[in-house]
Amino acid sequence: MESGLPMSPYESDPADRLLTASADGEDQAVEAALRPKLLDEFIGQERVREQLSLVLQAARKRGAAPDHVLLSGPPGLGKTTLSMIIAAELNAPIRITSGPAIQHAGDLAAILSSLTEGEVLFLDEIHRMSRPAEEMLYMAMEDFRVDVIVGKGPGATAIPLELPPFTLVGATTRAGLLPPPLRDRFGFTGHMEFYAPAELERVVHRSAGLLDVEIDPAGAAEIAGRSRGTPRIANRLLRRVRDFAQVRHDGLVSREIAARALEVYEVDARGLDRLDRAVLEALLKLFGGGPVGLSTLAVAVGEEAETVEEVAEPFLVREGLLARTPRGRIATAAAWQHLGLTPPQAPAAARAARGVRQNGLWADGQA
Ligand SMILES: Nc1ncnc2c1ncn2[C@@H]1O[C@H](COP(=O)(O)OP(=O)(O)OP(=O)(O)O)[C@@H](O)[C@H]1O
């Protein structure tokens, strides 16, 4: 049973999109090899890294398990990677599971009771855990104890079970929707931000080294610029560009090769894909930049309203290309510029742009 929370727009990305931030099968297979193993190798997220480093160093000094850690932020920014780094830095084993995998409180009890002292428990998508499991987790986090209910009805008894001290690392795309009692039991929350292009360039370089791909700095910059601030996407685009470079050229990834490869995959210079551009083009060309209602816009691009709203729009809004207003969707000046189109001018605005009105006449002589 799920917690009943709506899916996050991040989670509902269809996996067949090259630019989705959620992991597909190929990602999962390659990602293990690309994950940084220690905090020093982890690129970017300076603030979270420094804060976490203090938490871990202090725990090591005290010889105790650190406080529970909550990592929040969109998918593909390195939450799983950081949880593994936490375990490696503490020299502790790690157990990995996720909210949706824990259907019953008993599932959680089984995991908790088999933890060893100091072990790190990584709970991905913690906001999607069932309510009874969530309540069991409160007690486990605070008192390192759970009550296992044996039997049913009036004869049911609660058997207390002591747990060894462990560190929970929870990950969520929606920290704001976690129930406060759960949120409050984390001693440290790290908010992961989208990566800057220069940081993604370093990610691409590092991954290229591990995958044995020859790449020059301009090639890495080209891939980074199209990766939507997300290392998982950067790594995926790098693999597609590598294919192109190996099949059509000599294997070296330069700016030109990266740009041509990503053109084949319909990822433009700003990281927009076919659907993103279709939405923008409809908004600009059919509706003059809006405002237009979501369902009308969706019909124009032949997609479901939810797909437009949850898959294309979040990135377009983040990029400042589209705005959601109470009257409908509108395109920004940057959207016109990005598609190389000229916004229509309102008659008065057009005249004002041409000249100053004097003596009741515009500079062009019209009244
Ligand atoms: N700071 C980083 N430096 C280098 N590589 C990174 C960094 N962050 C993430 N990556 C790479 O990006 C990929 C995705 O990272 P990860 O699986 O940790 O993301 P996530 O936030 O846990 O995603 P999800 O929420 O979907 O589980 C991994 O291959 C990892 O190697």
How many independent structural domains? Answer: 3
CATH class categorisation of the largest domain: Alpha Beta
Strand order of the largest sheet: 2-3-6-1-7
**What is the number of E strands?**
9
**Order of helix and strand elements from N to C terminus:** HHEHEHEHEEEHEHHHHHHHEEHH
The CATH superfamily of the largest domain is: P-loop containing nucleotide triphosphate hydrolases
> Strand content of the residues, in percent?
5-15%
Q: End-to-end distance, in Å?
A: 70 Å
Cofactors and ligands: adenosine-5'-triphosphate
**Estimated radius of gyration:** 25 Å
Average pLDDT for all residues: 88
Low-confidence regions: 1-12, 348-367
> How many helical elements?
15
Which overall shape is indicated by the principal axes computed on the Cα atoms? globular
| Main beta-sheet strand count, sense and barrel state | 5 strands, parallel
Organism: Kitasatospora setae (strain ATCC 33774 / DSM 43861 / JCM 3304 / KCC A-0304 / NBRC 14216 / KM-6054) (Streptomyces setae)
Domain AAA+ ATPase: 65-198
Binding site for Mg(2+): 80
Region (Head domain (RuvB-H)): 269-367
Architecture overview:
The chain is of the alpha/beta class and 367 residues long. It has three domains: 35-191, P-loop containing nucleotide triphosphate hydrolases (Rossmann fold); 197-264, Orthogonal Bundle (Helicase, Ruva Protein, domain 3); 274-343, Winged helix-like DNA-binding domain superfamily/Winged helix DNA-binding domain (Arc Repressor Mutant, subunit A), CATH 1.10.10. It is 45% helix and 12% strand. The protein has 15 helices and nine strands. The chain has helices at 25-34, 46-62, 79-90, 105-113, 131-143, 180-183, 197-211, 217-225, 231-248, 255-264, 274-286, 294-301, 305-318, 333-338, 347-354, and strands spanning 69-72, 94-98, 120-124, 145-150, 157-162, 167-172, 188-191, 322-325, 328-331. The strands form three sheets. Strands 2-3-6-1-7 form a five-stranded parallel β-sheet, with helices on one face. The protein has a two-stranded antiparallel sheet with strand order 4-5. A two-stranded antiparallel ribbon has the order 8-9. Helix 4 (105-113) links the parallel strand 2 and strand 3 (120-124). 35% of the residues are buried. The model is unreliable at 1-12 and 348-367 (pLDDT under 50). Residues 22-23, 31, 34-36, 42-44, 75-81, 124, 203, 231-232, 235 line the site of adenosine-5'-triphosphate (ATP).
